[in-house]
Amino acid sequence: MKRAVDFMAAGLAAILLLPLFVLVGVAVRLTSPGPVLYWSDRVGRGSVLFSMPKFRTMNVGTPAVATHLMRDAKSALTPIGALLRRTSLDELPQLWSVMKGDMSIVGPRPALFNQDDLIALRREVGVDIVRPGITGWAQINGRDELPIPDKVALDAEYVKRQSFLFDLHIILKTAAKLLGDKTVTH
After folding, report:
1. Residues with Cβ within 8 Å of residue 155, at least 6 apart in sequence
2. Which residue, 10, 8, 4, is CA-closest to 95?
3. What predicted TM-score, i.e. pTM, was given to this entire model?
4. Would 10 disulfide with which of 29, 84, 95, 147, CB 3.0-4.6 Å?
């Protein structure tokens, strides 16, 4: 049932947001050389790797590591990269991954392929049995500022509590954070 709801919601959102997709894509292309989309290798359900699209916010050639681990992430941002990240507009292409079945709208955020500590801990507590999501319980409770064990504990809590109503609660909290919470960072 969740897969069907994800597919329909992602398809509808993609259609409704098509003008925004075009606008952001043109803005990315006009403000920096390189492709509009960045395909990031991520770990999905069952620890299977998949390629997740995002609007490109970093300059071409930036290392594929978690942003918070970079020495000077701000210098790698494109001219509109900070704005796209702050507003989470860079995440819009992930609707493709939801429609394709690699992701869900709600679930633990997919780990980068090289985040071995996060991947191992998630596997240990059984978080890798669910599809990763565009947003999730850990996402609205601290995002990248959370230490990995705390993030995984929230991910495990999500797996135990997942339901349509809990997903709806997370979606509404995500929207509230995006519209009003100025502390959201990447």
Report:
1. 108, 122, 125, 127, 136, 137, 138
2. 10
3. 0.86
4. 95
